[in-house]
Amino acid sequence: MIHLAIFGMRVLETLFFVGLAGSAVVVAISFVEDFRVLLHRDRPWTASQRPSGEQEYPQPAGSRRSEPDAAASRA
Description:
The chain is mostly helical. The chain contains 2 helices and no strands.
């Protein structure tokens, strides 16, 4: 009976470390993608990169102002 418990413990331990390694891969990929977005945030899109029908700076749904900095224009 104790051998079955030890085997089960080893299986769960293996699954834990496989999940941990998978999570580390996801975090690394997310970090790389976010870093690329951060580096290229200030570049304006060219016409070929912009999805058709999109504004250069899309406004949130329900936005009443078309300027990106509506709060500054009120002051």
